[in-house]
Amino acid sequence: MEHHIKSLRPFIGAKDFALSRQFYTELGFEEVSLGPNMSVFKSGDFAFYLQDYYVKDWIDNSMIFLEVDDTERYWNMLSALNLPSKYDGVKLIPIRNEHWGRECFLHDPSGILWHFGEFYSL
């Protein structure tokens, strides 16, 4: 099967839609509202959908890996935002070095786990 992929956009849920919209805007994503219960958040050619929908089991098992060019630089930018002091439930976890690369972690206000990292080689 031959793929001609133009984009891949995951859907994530929000426990508090307004709060999550604010969080992702502060994180640097551009929001495009698609209606009262759905937005798309973009950064360059990449995007994800945020919906006003919450199922605890789904959210607790949602993870997104965002590959970045420099994990250390990204960690410093995330730390400077001081998100855990602004949003209940948000956790920022320092960089871990693994055999495949390095990453840091961020739990959003709903509990979705974001991985921000880079690969040594693939």
Structural account:
This protein is of the alpha/beta class and 122 residues long. The chain has four helices and eight strands; from the N terminus they run βαβββαβααβββ. The protein has helices at 17-26, 56-60, 71-81, 83-86; strands at residues 11-13, 30-35, 38-43, 46-51, 63-67, 91-97, 101-107, 113-119. The strands form two sheets. A four-stranded mixed sheet has the order 1-4-3-2, with helices on one face. A four-stranded mixed sheet has the order 5-8-7-6, with helices on one face. β7 (101-107) and β8 form a beta hairpin. It is globular. It starts with 10 loop residues before the first strand and ends with a strand. The relative contact order is 0.20. The mean pLDDT is 96.
What is the topological layout?
Elements: E1 11-13, H1 17-26, E2 30-35, E3 38-43, E4 46-51, H2 56-60, E5 63-67, H3 71-81, H4 83-86, E6 91-97, E7 101-107, E8 113-119
Parallel strand pairs: 1-4, 5-8
Antiparallel strand pairs: 2-3, 3-4, 6-7, 7-8
Into which percent range does the helicity of residues fall?
10-25%
Tell me the fraction of residues in β-strands, as a range. 35-45%
What kind of sheet is the major sheet?
4 strands, mixed
> How many helices does DSSP assign?
4
Please state the overall shape, judged from the principal axes of the Cα atoms: globular
Could you report the average pLDDT, rounded to the nearest whole number? 96
Class per helix and strand makeup? alpha/beta
Count of extended strands: 8
Termini separation: 22 Å
Stretches where pLDDT falls below 50 for ≥5 residues? none
